[in-house]
Amino acid sequence: MAETLLEIHDLHAGAADREILKGIDLTIQKGEVHVILGPNGSGKSTLMNVIMGHPGYQVTEGSLTFEGKDITALKTTARQAITGKRERIFGFRKELKEMMEDLQIDPSYSERYLNVGFSGGEKKRNEILQLLMLRPKLALLDETDSGLDVDAVQIVSRGVSKFQNGDNACLIITHNARILDKLKVDRVHVLMQGRIVEEGGPELVEQINRDGFGHIKETTV
Ligand code: ADP
Ligand code: MG
Predict the structure, then answer these.
(1) What is the reported pLDDT for 109?
(2) Beta bridge partners of 187
(3) Which SS3 state, helix, strand or coil, does residue 170 take?
(4) Confidence (pLDDT) at 152
(5) Which residues lie at CB < 5 A from ion ligand 2?
(6) Residue range 153-177, pLDDT digits in tens
(7) Are 173 and 48 in contact (CB under 8 A)?
């Protein structure tokens, strides 16, 4: 039976006294992949920041519940203890080596400073490596501004498939239908001006890539 991982209810949040999210409802069950789409400035990254408990954003109304616990008022560190970066010490090195081989990461990379002097593809591999080693219960991926070369797309979609199990979930911001080719997407949410204005299945990604957001603007906002 599906179990709820994250439940967002009537979330209003903003930064610097400005309301950016204007009443978001979103429920993510364990085992699911959700996609957020929306024009620039619609609040996609803000939503992820608020889920992470980023101190630069304030929740002014509504609630966030993670595995049944109210995390609305928690600061980032306390929230991470609940939303999980469960570091497993045993077998870490062995697993890291295997994972790096699998992602075709040069072993010398692990000795470099994180994300310094890396190319776009290398950064992507690093992000996915961190995802697979830290195994948060909820993976939040903001792919809107990332380099969308074929290599990066492959790394993200393969990485997320590998990450996925029945106990965790993934929330991805992307317009790239190719990232979604190899992933089973459960639900797509369209965000505009701080509100979810349309929801549907994976076909919504194709539809929006084809028709844009114009038709939604006319009918709902
Ligand atoms: P998206 O990721 O959908 O492009 P954002 O969530 O980054 O949109 O931003 C939504 C709106 O909120 C934008 O108008 C942006 O300028 C504003 N905004 C985001 N973060 C902040 C912040 N820390 N302080 C002030 N305004 C912000
Ligand atoms: Mg953004």
Answers:
(1) 64
(2) 34
(3) strand
(4) 81
(5) 44-45, 144
(6) 888 888 999 999 999 999 999 888 8
(7) yes
Name the pLDDT band for 5 (thresholds 50, 70, 90): very high
Q: Which residues are bridge partners to 138 per DSSP?
A: 169
Task: List CB contacts of 130: < 8 A, sequence separation 6 or more.
Answer: none
Q: Which long-range contacts (CB under 8 A, 24 or more apart) does 26-30 make?
A: 26/189, 26/196, 28/4, 28/138, 28/169, 28/171, 29/2, 29/3, 29/4, 29/5, 29/169, 29/186, 30/2, 30/3, 30/4, 30/5, 30/166, 30/167, 30/168, 30/169
Pocket of ligand 1 (CB under 6 A): 15-16, 18, 20, 38, 40-46, 56
Between the CA of 38 and the centroid of ligand 1 the distance, in Å, is: 13
Q: How far apart are CA 125 and CA 104, in angstroms?
A: 8
- pTM across the whole model: 0.88
Q: Where are the beta strands (DSSP E) in the chain?
A: 4-15, 18-29, 33-37, 58-66, 69-70, 138-142, 169-173, 187-192, 195-200
Check if the beta carbon of residue 170 is closer than 8 Å to that of residue 143: no
Secondary structure class of 187 (helix, strand, coil) = strand
For residue range 100-148, what is the model confidence (pLDDT) as tens digits?
Answer: 888 887 777 666 655 566 677 778 888 898 889 888 999 999 887 666 6
Q: How many CA atoms lie within 13 A of 178 on its CB side?
A: 9
